[in-house]
Every structure is written in structure tokens, then in C-alpha cells.
């Protein structure tokens, strides 16, 4: 497969994954009740609310992996666009952007762990 074919497949997977995450998020927010109540009402299509939450989490983690692949496949575009927008400071800006993502991921990890 050519690089453009991989990009198309990856973008299609990202779209389907995003739609699935959104649909399950809306399902969890508006259809399946939370809190105390009859246990039978917390099921939808044979799955409990917590099982839907697990699917939502796994799809989100899968999307993170797809996003990393997306950036990797489009890295030359990122570098060239950064060069054209920022001129001689493009390397510093790109490093700052990468470091910012590492900090954001670390903060998210700390928030989840504690």
C-alpha cells in the first residue's frame, strides 16, 4: 500500500472511532440512568452501564494510538508548515510543542492515577 492509502485508512478509522466514542458518550450521558435506581434500568442492549464505560475507555485509548500514527504519517507536513509559519524559530517551536504534549499527557496520567 502507498502512504496515501495508509493515510486514508487511518483517517477512516479515526472517523469511525470518533463517531463510536461520541455515540457511547451520549448513550452514557442521556440514555442509561446513573445513581441509585432499579438495576435493570442500567442495561442497554444487554450491557451494563459500566461495561459501556469500559468500551468507551478502550475506544478512547485506541483513538490515542491512531492519533499518534496520524501525526507520525504526517510529520513532514507538520515540519514544513511549522517552518513556513515560524521561519528561523521553527525548531524551537516544534520542540516546545512536543514538550507541551508530554506535559499534558503526564498531567492526564497523574489525574487518572490520583
UniProtKB/TrEMBL annotation:
Keyword annotations of the record: Membrane, Transmembrane, Transmembrane helix
UniProt keyword annotation of Membrane present: yes
Top-level taxon of the source organism: Bacteria
The UniProt record lists the keyword Membrane: yes
Spans through the membrane: 12-34, 55-73, 93-112
Classification via InterPro entries: DUF4405
One Pfam family named in its UniProt record: DUF4405
All residue ranges annotated as the Flavinylation-associated cytochrome domain in the record: 10-75
Protein name from the UniProt record: Flavinylation-associated cytochrome domain-containing protein
Amino acid at each position: 500500500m502507498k502512504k496515501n492509502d495508509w493515510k486514508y485508512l487511518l483517517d477512516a478509522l479515526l472517523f469511525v472511532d470518533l463517531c463510536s466514542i461520541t455515540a457511547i458518550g451520549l448513550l452514557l450521558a442521556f440514555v442509561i440512568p446513573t445513581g441509585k435506581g432499579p438495576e435493570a434500568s442500567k442495561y442497554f442492549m444487554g450491557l451494563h452501564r459500566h461495561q459501556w464505560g469500559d468500551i468507551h475507555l478502550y475506544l478512547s485509548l485506541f483513538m490515542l494510538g491512531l492519533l499518534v500514527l496520524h501525526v507520525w504519517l504526517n510529520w513532514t507536513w507538520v515540519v514544513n508548515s511549522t517552518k513556513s509559519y515560524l521561519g528561523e524559530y521553527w525548531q524551537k517551536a516544534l520542540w516546545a510543542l512536543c514538550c507541551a504534549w508530554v506535559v499534558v499527557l503526564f498531567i492526564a496520567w497523574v489525574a487518572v492515577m490520583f
